[in-house]
Amino acid sequence: LSLQQDVIAGFLYAILILVVFHPVVDLIDNFNLTYKYAPLIIITFEMSAVEKVEQQLAALRIARRCAPSEEPAYLLDIDTSTAAQPGSGRFVAVCCSNKSIRVYDRETLHLLHEYSGHPGTLSGVRFAHVCDSVVFTACSEGTVKCWDVRSASQKPVQVFSGYPSNIFISFDVSCSDLIVCAGTEKVEKDTFLVFWDARGITDCASTTKEPLGVYSESHNDDITKICFHPVEPNLVVSGSTDGLVNLFDINKDNEDDALISTCNSDSSVSSLGWCGKDYNQVYCTTHDEGFCWWDMAQLDTEEPITLLHVLDVRESVCAENHGLHYLVGGLYHENAGKLFLIGGTSTGDIHLISCGTDGLSLVGTLCGGHSATVRSFCWSQTDESLLTGGEDAQLLLWKPGAVERSLTKKASLKISSSVQKRVRVRNTSLKSRKK
């Protein structure tokens, strides 16, 4: 009974804190609380903050829908520019299955430019972090190209060429915009991470840059994902169909010294990213809908680095009548310090999944937007909005509590399955991490 009274008292004082907005320590002093209530008060406040974010995500509604394109295509990747100054316009770039890049106005979703005529399959799109009008694309024919969306020209302002055998299927740009890195498909016995110096991209138009060098020993199969650290330009992680997720410090002189850690997802990596305080954690999803989450801050300690490993998220998350058919990727909410997963159904429903070290749980489902599989998304921390693109050729902008102005909705497209990504799932023996 005494314990119950203590708990009730703790919650009552926690409610006072949330209403009055005074610091916890001040209230402890003012109301002569014993310090045994302080941890309970703090935990209650943190839970409420996370719950508020989860409610906001679940309340996302369609604010805009792009106009139908004359040539429908799967929307495979999405990225948004960072406004150069407050109030300036922002852009959205979309990588399409018809080998084109489309650039839209961020708020209206009006089409501004379309860059077509790529000789190979596109493997992603990324805006520069410093210059908000510069966008990069990688192509399977062995190049990474840079475009200036302010120009009406169909020609890239910069081309980064790989080696003759390179087939690029992933890439990223460092947070300082100094380095571009692309991952290759395995050709014979070779697979590479290729690096270029990206400085002066708009000052030497129409020139071709040769690679700075390559890493060739750390993966033994297709490199499906590359992701630079959000604030440390020398750190990059790569994921592969060999199941390995490698962390590199590219400031080191050679590949062997650069390899900081190797983690094993036990499957083919489909997406990966950074999260956690100071972005010292790495997560990945796999092509068979698995999920792995590691804490790289524990590399030099005796503590385990694995925070969570779920072999099949579809079996661990209860999505009631909607089901969960696939994962798209991860979303790290900076304000809440919380990691979420984005998944969905073949009929276009989008599931928002909360990640904790104790497991995964469904936060909410966004319905009524897409009519087919969602392939890509992009989260904006600035206005807490979500962009999604899918196999129904629709680009949607979701905002909390929004009301859609246009209710037009296209039927699901039937596009040849040849654009589906080749997936090879392999289990590999655990490679001990390197410190």
Automatic annotation (TrEMBL):
SUPFAM superfamilies for this protein: WD40 repeat-like
> Which terms are listed as keywords in the entry?
Membrane, Repeat, Transmembrane, Transmembrane helix, WD repeat
Q: Does this entry carry the keyword Repeat?
A: yes
Domain of life assignment: Eukaryota
Keyword Repeat attributed: yes
Please give the start and end residues of each transmembrane region: 7-25
WD-type repeats, residues? 115-157, 216-258, 367-399
Which named protein is this?
Answer: WD repeat-containing protein 89
Species in which this protein is naturally found: Pardalotus punctatus
Gene name as annotated: Wdr89
